[in-house]
Each structure stands twice: as structure tokens, then as C-alpha cells.
Design a protein that fits this description.
heterotrimer, A alpha/beta (about 500), B mainly alpha (about 300), C mainly alpha (about 290), A: about 500 residues, alpha/beta, D-Maltodextrin-Binding Protein, domain 2, 7-stranded mixed beta sheet, 3-stranded antiparallel beta sheet, 21 helices, 12 strands, about 45% helix, globular, B: about 300 residues, mainly alpha, MetI-like fold, two-stranded antiparallel ribbon, 15 helices, 2 strands
């Protein structure tokens, strides 16, 4: 027993020695997360902002040590995290062999839960192999990183992978892409695509690496019944005048509060509108984190909204946030982009799926205080792709072929990446029943060219998430502002060890 | 004694029979463990998703970062302990209560169905349990519906925006998942106690409370310790439930972030150096705890033999 | 002997006893109801459509049970039935290997007196508490370099070294495996390995059954390591598929499917448990009492 006690005491001593040692080496080591001030330092932040934006460089393309095997050449391997692109390809890519793939569409034409066979093929017999990994907890990117790294020595080549706007930069500047030109698309092929989708799809040198079939401008969707009650009109133009800038937006919020409504549902609702309109990107040339003034404005606005009861204290995607969009909700409006209106808002507004009851037809959209975008998926051909022709054709058909893109818009309400096509729709009497007969495509077509993608960097996804979740504690009053900022820096550096708190 | 002397000639079989265990352990546990520890002395992570930084030898730097006051490692250790304790106290209380009721011969309770139901929550995976309770306690979930209907309050209770309510929800889930198991174990321990002890206590005029504290508790002490230690193991590894309830642990100023959740953060960012260092610390904590197990197991041995003899 | 005491306070005793009994039943029933709440929420939500579930809970079921079931089973990207099969293979083999080799290891420590016996026992107790997450990093890298990604081996074989199962087996042997049986077998000329297989294993049946079920359930519900090892859609186990359904994108995200998938994954285990509950309860008792 005494022996054991000695061992126990010994290991405790090791632990204590560890912390003592750490305390000693602390002085001279500049380990991650070392900070010399608490919370947010305006001066340091300003200095960091002036240091200039972090300029990512395009990495050298990965060299392939092996060639794809015969089997690999007969397969087109596509990495994705969800069903959206699969559905687009299955339904709208003319070379997709529906019969051989045993693809059946639901009778009611509804999304999801379609039937598809075990193996899927193109009409020339090439098998399509999907590798699907969910996005949660960074799993998709982890999987992609690992497999792309091993691509050089693998004889089963990944041909194409999909990326989202929030982390697209990471891959476009990485070594694992094949440029769109090399795949075989010309500038004239992509001429009709929205400019911002091309900026988003380019690497640090401005070479196009990725293309998208959609554009995702955002609008403000509001309740017509509440608008009439509070502002005396539900006309989108007049409501837009009430919400034209943030000062007016805040004033409208006060008015709504007086009448017993909420302007917004939760803390994060207006976040993207602010974060898409920043002056400085998240990270500067010295890898210091920069918090833009516009984000600080979001913090102040949201704190004010929370304290004054202008919002209903929910979080994005929470059940109560969804409920706020239904007929029992008391929230005036939601910032939503193209896909969100047709899928999420429409679903939440109806009391029963497809019944056209509840708030069906009682929403309308207007541009809101600032232009923004939300979401979007880009296709990337991978370095080492051994089915170039087929990838090129998929890209061409699904992102450059106006007829196919218009078919997608007709079939799915998706806002597709064809400027001329969308403008045509804008000038027709295209109507959304859900929005009470409004032609929302017209508003989207106005908003899309205003989107500025130039401030988006490789760290956006992680930093946006960390910032929102750290600030939530400040909004709810659980911590003071300094602690919230500290928590943000902490979480940011946990995610990206190469980043630093400014002025350290 | 006879057995012992004879078995000496069979000693080689002892070695042969433990070979599979150790071969597998070395390949699948020890090698990864050592490589993890080795990593802890390096700066080794992936920047911008594709740029491999390191491995560069940095000595104890990762450890000094972890032990620096900014990292608040002690906070996560404290959270782990508090979350475990919050679940363990009701667990041991109710398990003892139910076990003593179930074994009370005078009460003559019909217990079959209860025992089955009490154990049932254990078959749900922890993550799903977290999801179901998230629904239950959400601002427009059934708990708040009932609360608002009864009190007429306009505002729901935001269980996930508050340190102690959030921790309590996690504790309730842990409690529900494990109290059934504990009840059954304690019941078995109480059943093993010689009934004549209770009879003589009754003759001496002891009431149920007295017999419980004076006879039952001292005699099931070893198994209580076993429950405590196994529960500690689970507590140290706690991850799935708080992960879902607290959105990756960052809710409410990180007051429900456990050590393993913190480790996961470094694993997700592929910071092999920091994750390695944190793993070493976790390993040492686990080591200290398991030495406690060892201590108690040794203590128990002689008593166990005595009781076995007494029972037969 | 007890009779006179009962006679003394018979009347007051019987009323207090009745009150106590009522209190017991009330408390027990209350806790039982709380224990069943998660199942209730699950079953209700299995019958509801997505947009309703998203907006909050309802006490009464709706009529979408069959729809949800179909959409989970028919989706070829999820391959629910296939993953059910995979989970079954992984969990069953894990349970088998884990119990057999833990029994074997425990038997070695229990029966044979070899030099390293004590250190080995101590060592296994020491590693019992090391969280899986600690070595996960090295584990995944090692499996990647051995090309064992998308393979069941890294999920099944490591269960041979299961310290907790070993510990339970050891406890059980101490209470229910007299060494004279082994002696008797030796006198009959039985080989050591044969003795273990044909004589000891049958005696160990209750403990093996209990640990087999424990290992099965924990392997069945395990997401952490499989999530890092498996990604091929034909190789995925249930928790991975549930995670995929949970993180589906907006156009197909369907909470009805999520709850249905969880239901489908829990029901087999719950049913097995209900059928074997008597056995399990007895088994837990047997292994743990002898403290």
C-alpha cells in the first residue's frame, strides 16, 4: 500500500511540476493564445486593419505520382456533403442515364426521398461514384483534405469536389485544383454568369478554379399582415423605404415593438448583412484577426435589439426560430437568400406541408438595408482528375447552358447563374404564389450584381461561427463585452492555430 | 495452497492466454498512444486547410500554452468534475433508495417492471438522448409550454442560456442513462448481505433508517466505491451529451465545456501538437484515477473472501 | 424469533407499512414515467412531418409514420438497411471477440500463478480509464497508413483488448469459478485450452451474455471512431447515417427522417433488451456483487 501511495504522490507531483514548469517557461515563450490585454483593444485592432489584408497565395499544384487506373477512368468520383448537387445532376444533366441508374422522381415532384439505384451511370456507361460526408463538425473538409492529400499516390482519382462559399478560398488557393480553363471551359462559356460567383470561384491570382450553377443574393422577407397593421401598407416599395438603411431599420424596429411585434427573431438574423459589407477582411497580412467596424455595429445593434425587446431571443435554425416564421409568430421579417425563401421560409410559413394555409401568400420581399448573399455551392475539378472531358461537360451543361439553368429555376425555384436568363424572368410576369403574387426574381436580379465578394477570405466560416457564438453570451447578458471578445479570440485560435490576437 | 503450488507448472499457459489481449493492445492502443504523446512536443498543425506547419520540435511549449492562465484548463477540469458530480449525486441517491426499497422484505414491492424501465434509457445513444432533451427543454418545447400555461408567464425559461440550468439538463440526461444500472448493482449487493444481521437488528429494535445506515451502507461500501470509480471513468470521458446541449461547448461562457470536448476542438483543427499535449494531461489524470481504483480493489479483496465464506 | 416483535406493534406497523408502500409506488412510478419521456418524444416525432417538428412539440401523434419510414428506407444515398447490416456485423463480432478474449485473459490472471500476474493485472486496471479520445489521433493516422480506412477491422479487432470487460469477468470468476474444477479437469487429462473452451466458458455464460450485450450496445451506438474510419456509403454504420441525415442540407433536411432513423436504430436494441431483461438484470448482479 505504501508503494501505491508513493506512486500516487509521484504522479501528482508530476502534474504540479508540469504546471510549475509551464509557468516558468511562460515568460519567454510566445505560445498560441498569448494575449497582453483583455477583451477588445480598439487601437490594436485599428493598427491590425491598417496592416493590409491577408493575401493568400495560390499553392503549387499537386504533382501526380501515379496515373489513374483503368477502373478509375471508368468512374467519375465526386465528393460532396449533401444531396443538392446530386439532385441537380440527376434531374437536369442530359447525359445522366436515369434508366440505368434506376432514378425515379416522386409523383408529387417534391424534393428529397427520391429513389435511385445502387449504381448510377452516365449515358456513355461511366459510373458516377458519390462520396458523401456530412458538413457537421468539419467532417466533410477533414475527409476531403485527407483524400486530396493522398490523391498524388492513389490510382483511384477524385474527379470533382464541391465547396461552399464560406470555405471555398481554402481549396481554391490550395494545391488540389485544376483550373476551369484547363478542364476546358472558355471565358465565353462563363460570360453569362454573375460576376461575384466568378470572383468567389477564383484563386489568389484571379484564375477561375470553380463554377456554380446558382447565385444566392439575399433579401428581407416580411409579413404583409404585420406591415399593414404597423406601417399601413404592405407594398414592397413603401416597406423598402421604411428599411432603406440601418437607422431607418432601427426606427422601424421601435415602431414594431410598440405595436407588440418583433423586428427580427434572433441574435444572428442580421449577421450576414453586416458581415458581407465589411471594409476589412477577417485576417491581416500578419495573420492577426481584425474585427471590422461593421461587425462591431452588428454587436451593438443586436445588443440594443435584445435589451429593448426588438427581437425574440432565438438562434438561427433553432425550433423556436422556425416557429417564429409560422402563423403563431410575432416576428416582422427574416433575412433570407434565394434558397431560403423557397424551402425554409415557405415550409415554416405553412401550417401543413403543401396545404397553402397558415401564412402562405402572406409574405413579401424587399431589398432591405444592404445587399448581401448567403450560401452557394461551387464545383471544382481536382488536380489529377482523370475524366476531364466529362467534368468539363457537366460544368458546361449545369453552369453555362442557359436553357438547362432556366429549367432548374422552373423546376426548383432556385435562382440560377445566368444573368440574361434571370433578367428575362425579372421582366416577365413570373409570380410567386407564396409571396402573394410578387415577382421576387426581379428583386433578386437587382440585388445579385451588388454583391461584393472581395472581402471574403479563407477563414470566414470558422471565424463567423466563433464570433456569433461568443457574442451570444454578451447579448443574453451572461458575460461582459470583454469576456465575450476574449472567448471569440480563444475559439478562433483553437480553430486556426496560425492566427493571432492583434497587437500581441 | 495446494492449487497454488500445482499451478506453477502451468505458468506458461498464463502467458499464452494473455498474448491476444496484449498484442491487440500494443498494436491498436499503445502505438497510437505513443505517437500521440510524441506529437505533443512538436508544433504540428495544418494552416489554411492545406499548409502543413511542422512538425517542429518545440519542447514543452504546447504544455506551457495549456497551463497558461489564458487557456483556463482548470476551468474545463472543473466543468468536467461539476457536470459529473451533478449527475452522480442524484444517481447514487435514487439508486440507493430504490435498491433499499426493492430489497426490503417487509415492503414486498412488485418490482419487475420498474427494473426493466429504469434500465431502458441506457440503450439510447448519448447523442440521440441529447437531441431529445434539447427538444424537451427548448423555449417552445413541452416543458416550457407547461410552465407558461401554469404560471401564465410570457417569457419561456431559456434553459440553454444559463449556467446552472444548462448544466442541470446535462446532469438529468446522465442521471437517466445510468441510475438504472446502478440500482441493479446496488440491489445485488444488498441481496448479498446476510439476512440474519437484519433480523437481529430488528430484535434490538432498530428502525429501517437505522438498519440502512448501520448495516446496509457499511456492508455495501466496496460496491459503492466500484460504482463511484466506474462513474468517474464515464465522467472523465463525457462528451456527446454536453456537445449537443451546449453547441460545441461554447454556450454560456464555456461553463459546460469538458476536457474531452476541449481536446476535440484541437482534433478538429488538426492541431496535433496541442491535441497531443492535452492527451498526455488527460492520460495523467486518468492514471491517477485508475490508481485509486487499484487502491480500492486491493482493499476489497480480503473482505470479499470473508463474505463469500459467510454466505455459503 | 421475529414473531413476538411483530405482534407488539402489529397495528401501527401495518398502517405505516401501507403508507410507506404507497409512497414507494408513487415515487417509483414518477421516475419510471420520466425515464420513458425520451421514448415518448421519439415515438411521437416519428409520426410527424418536418415542418411541424421544427416548430415545436406536440403531445399527440400525427399520421406520417409510414411516410417517414418509407423516406428513410427508400433513400439510396443513406442506405439505412445496409447500414443496419453493417452495424450488426461490427457490433456482433465486437461483442463476440471482446467477451471471448476478455474471459480468456481474466482466466489467465485468475487461474495461473505466473510471475507477471500482479503487474499485468495492475496494468490492465491502469489503462481501463484512459479515454478513447486520447489515442484517437494516432489511431486514425496509423489506420490510414495501413490502408484500413473504410474497413471494419479497426472497429472490430481492438475489442479483443477490452479492460472493462476483462475486469467484470475477473470479478465474476472470483465469485463463481472454484479452482478445483480446473484441477479436476486436469486430472481427467483435459488440455488447458480445451478446459477453458469446453468447461469454463459454459460456467461463464451469464457473465458472457451480459458483457456481450453491453459491448453490443456500446458498439452499436458508437459514433466517434467509426465516424473517423468509415465514409464509403456501403460501409457506414447506423450512427454515421443518422449523423448524415441530421446534417442534410435545407432542400432535403427532414426531422421526421431523423427521428425515424433514430427509432429504427434503437428499436432492435430495446427489443432485445426487453426480451432478455431478466437475464441481464441477473447478470449485472452476479458480476458486481462480490465486492
Amino acid at each position: 500500500m505504501t508503494k501505491l501511495k508513493r506512486v500516487l504522490a509521484g504522479s501528482l507531483a508530476v502534474l504540479m511540476a508540469g504546471s510549475a514548469l509551464a509557468a516558468c517557461s511562460k515568460k519567454d515563450s510566445g505560445g498560441n493564445g498569448d494575449t497582453s490585454y483583455k477583451g477588445f483593444n480598439e487601437e490594436a485592432n485599428k493598427k491590425a486593419a491598417e496592416a493590409g489584408a491577408f493575401k493568400p497565395t495560390k499553392a503549387e499544384t499537386q504533382k501526380q505520382n501515379t496515373e489513374g487506373s483503368e477502373e478509375s477512368k471508368k468512374q467519375i468520383r465526386i465528393y460532396t456533403w449533401n444531396e443538392e448537387f446530386k439532385e441537380r445532376l440527376r434531374c437536369y444533366y442530359p447525359e445522366y442515364d436515369k434508366e440505368a441508374s434506376e432514378f425515379e422522381v416522386n409523383e408529387d415532384g417534391s424534393q428529397g426521398a427520391r429513389k435511385v439505384g445502387e449504381h448510377e451511370y452516365l449515358k456513355d456507361g461511366t459510373e458516377i461514384v458519390w462520396v458523401t460526408t456530412p458538413n457537421t463538425d468539419n467532417q466533410y473538409q477533414n475527409k476531403l483534405d485527407e483524400d486530396l492529400k493522398n490523391q498524388a499516390d492513389s490510382d483511384m482519382k477524385i474527379d470533382m469536389f464541391l465547396v461552399e462559399a464560406d470555405y471555398a478560398m481554402k481549396y481554391l488557393n490550395g494545391p488540389y485544383t485544376m483550373s476551369v480553363a484547363e478542364v476546358g471551359l472558355t471565358d465565353s462559356d462563363t460570360a453569362d454568369q454573375y460576376e461575384y460567383t466568378k470572383v468567389a470561384g477564383s484563386d489568389a491570382n484571379g484564375t477561375l478554379q470553380a463554377v456554380s450553377w446558382q447565385a444566392t443574393p439575399g433579401l428581407f422577407a416580411y409579413r404583409r399582415d404585420i406591415a399593414k397593421d404597423v406601417f399601413g401598407t404592405d407594398d414592397p416599395e413603401k416597406i423598402q423605404a421604411e428599411l432603406a438603411d440601418w437607422d431607418k431599420f432601427n426606427a422601424a424596429a421601435a415602431k414594431l415593438k410598440e405595436a407588440g411585434y418583433f423586428m427580427l427573431s434572433g441574435y444572428d438574423d442580421s449577421y450576414r448583412v453586416f458581415s458581407n459589407n465589411v471594409t476589412y477582411p477577417w485576417v491581416n497580412a500578419n495573420s492577426e484577426i481584425v474585427i471590422d467596424d461593421n461587425l462591431l455595429k452588428w454587436v451593438d445593434q443586436t445588443k440594443e435589439f435584445t435589451d429593448k425587446g426588438y427581437n425574440n431571443k432565438t438562434s438561427l435554425w433553432a425550433p423556436e426560430w422556425n416557429a417564429d416564421q409560422g402563423s403563431k409568430g410575432k416576428v416582422f421579417g427574416f433575412f433570407y437568400s434565394t434558397w431560403g425563401i423557397d424551402f425554409t421560409l415557405a415550409g415554416n410559413a405553412e401550417d401543413n406541408k403543401g396545404q397553402k394555409d397558415g401564412l402562405y401568400g402572406k409574405y413579401a420581399v424587399c431589398a432591405g438595408p444592404q445587399a448581401y448573399f448567403w450560401g452557394g455551392t461551387w464545383m471544382v475539378a481536382s488536380a489529377g482528375c482523370d475524366n476531364k472531358d466529362k467534368v468539363a461537360d457537366i460544368m458546361k451543361q449545369l453552369t453555362c447552358n442557359k436553357d438547362i439553368l432556366l429549367d432548374i429555376t422552373k423546376g426548383t425555384q432556385d435562382y440560377t447563374n445566368t444573368k440574361s436568363g434571370m433578367e428575362e424572368y425579372a421582366s416577365t410576369d413570373f409570380k410567386s404564389e407564396f409571396l402573394g403574387g410578387q415577382n421576387h426574381i426581379a428583386l433578386f436580379a437587382e440585388a445579385a450584381p451588388k454583391i461584393d465578394f472581395s472581402k471574403v477570405g479563407p477563414y470566414d466560416q470558422g471565424l463567423n461561427e466563433s464570433f456569433q457564438s461568443a457574442m451570444k453570451d454578451y447579448f443574453t447578458g451572461k458575460v461582459d463585452k470583454d469576456t465575450a471578445f476574449d472567448n471569440f479570440y480563444k475559439s478562433a485560435i483553437e480553430k486556426y492555430p496560425e492566427l493571432k490576437k492583434p497587437g500581441k | 495452497m495446494m492449487v497454488k503450488r500445482k499451478s506453477i507448472s502451468y505458468a506458461k499457459w498464463g502467458y499464452i492466454f494473455i498474448i491476444p489481449f496484449f498484442v491487440v493492445f500494443i498494436i491498436f492502443n499503445l502505438v497510437p498512444l505513443v505517437s500521440t504523446f510524441y506529437n505533443s512536443f512538436f508544433e504540428n498543425y495544418i494552416a489554411q486547410g492545406y499548409m502543413q506547419i511542422g512538425p517542429n520540435w518545440v519542447g514543452m511549449d504546447n504544455y506551457s500554452t495549456l497551463f497558461s492562465p489564458d487557456t483556463e484548463l482548470s476551468k474545463y477540469l472543473g466543468n468536467t468534475f461539476v457536470l459529473w458530480l451533478l449527475g452522480f449525486i442524484p444517481q447514487i441517491f435514487f439508486s440507493l433508495l430504490f435498491a433499499s426499497w426493492f430489497t426490503d422484505l417487509r415492503l414486498k414491492l412488485k418490482t419487475g417492471a420498474y427494473k426493466v424501465i429504469f434500465y431502458l434509457p441506457n440503450v439510447i445513444m448519448a447523442a440521440a438522448m441529447g437531441m431529445l432533451f434539447f427538444t424537451l427543454f427548448s423555449p417552445n418545447g413541452p416543458i416550457n409550454d407547461i410552465y407558461m400555461k401554469i404560471t401564465g408567464a410570457a417569457e419561456p425559461i431559456r434553459y440553454f442560456d444559463n449556467v446552472w440550468t444548462q448544466r442541470s439538463v446535462i446532469a438529468i440526461i446522465n442521471f437517466l442513462m445510468w441510475y438504472g444500472n446502478t440500482t441493479i448493482m446496488l440491489m445485488a449487493a444488498i441481496n448479498g448481505i446476510d439476512t440474519s444481521l437484519y433480523e437481529s437488528a430488528q430484535i434490538d429494535g432498530a428502525n429501517p433508517t437505522q438498519t440502512f445506515w448501520k448495516i446496509t451502507i457499511p456492508l455495501i461500501r466496496p460496491i459503492l466505491l466500484y460504482v463511484l470509480i466506474t462513474s468517474l471513468i464515464g465522467g472523465l470521458q463525457m462528451y456527446d451529451v454536453p456537445q449537443i446541449i451546449t453547441k460545441n461547448g461554447e454556450n454560456v461562457n464555456r461553463t459546460s465545456m469538458t476536457l474531452v470536448m476541449y481536446l476535440q476542438k484541437h482534433l478538429f483543427s488538426k492541431n496535433y501538437g496541442m491535441a497531443g499535449a492535452l492527451s498526455v494531461i488527460l492520460f495523467i489524470i486518468a492514471g491517477v484515477l485508475s490508481m485509486l481504483v487499484f487502491f480500492f480493489v486491493q482493499e476489497r479483496d480480503p473482505k470479499a473472501k470473508k463474505k463469500k465464506g459467510g454466505n455459503k | 424469533m421475529a414473531a413476538p416483535i411483530d405482534a407488539v406493534g402489529a397495528k401501527s406497523n401495518s398502517t405505516t407499512l401501507l403508507i410507506r408502500r404507497i409512497i414507494c409506488y408513487v415515487v417509483l412510478t414518477l421516475v419510471a414515467v420520466i425515464s420513458l419521456i425520451p421514448f415518448y418524444i421519439l415515438i411521437i416525432n416519428m409520426t410527424r412531418e418536418h415542418s411541424h417538428i421544427q416548430k415545436g412539440f406536440s403531445v399527440l401523434p400525427e399520421g406520417k409514420l409510414i411516410d417517414n419510414f418509407k423516406s428513410v428506407i427508400n433513400n439510396q444515398d443513406w442506405k439505412m438497411l445496409n447500414s443496419l447490416k453493417n452495424s450488426l456485423i461490427v457490433s456482433a463480432l465486437s461483442a463476440l471477440l471482446s467477451t471471448y478474449f476478455s474471459a480468456l485473459t481474466a482466466y489467465a490472471i485468475h487461474v495461473y500463478d505466473f510471475k507477471l500476474r500482479k503487474p499485468v493485472f495492475t496494468f490492465i486496471l491502469m489503462i481501463m480509464m484512459v479515454p478513447t479520445q486520447v489515442s484517437a489521433l494516432g489511431f486514425v493516422r496509423l489506420m490510414t497508413s495501413w490502408k484500413l480506412i473504410d474497413n471494419f477491422i479497426p472497429l472490430i479487432v481492438p475489442s479483443i483488448a477490452a479492460p472493462a470487460t476483462f475486469f467484470f469477468m475477473k470479478q465474476y470468476m472470483e465469485s463463481s469459478l472454484p479452482l478445483d474444477i480446473v484441477e479436476a479437469a486436469r486430472i481427467d487429462g483435459s488440455g488447458e485450452f480445451r478446459t477453458f473452451n469446453s468447461l469454463i466458458l459454459p460456467i461463464m455464460k451469464p457473465a458472457i451474455a451480459v458483457q456481450a450485450i453491453f459491448t453490443f450496445v456500446s458498439s452499436w451506438n458508437n459514433f466517434f471512431i467509426p465516424g473517423l474510419i468509415l465514409s464509403d456509403k456501403n460501409k457506414r454504420t447506423l450512427p454515421i447515417v443518422i449523423n448524415i441525415i441530421r446534417s442534410a442540407d435545407y432542400s432535403v433536411f427532414d426531422m421526421g427522417s431523423v427521428y425515424m432513423a433514430i427509432g429504427i436504430s434503437i428499436l432492435p436494441v430495446a427489443l432485445v433488451y426487453l426480451f432478455l431483461s431478466k437475464f441481464i438484470i441477473r447478470g449485472i448482479a452476479l458480476g458486481s456483487v462480490k465486492g
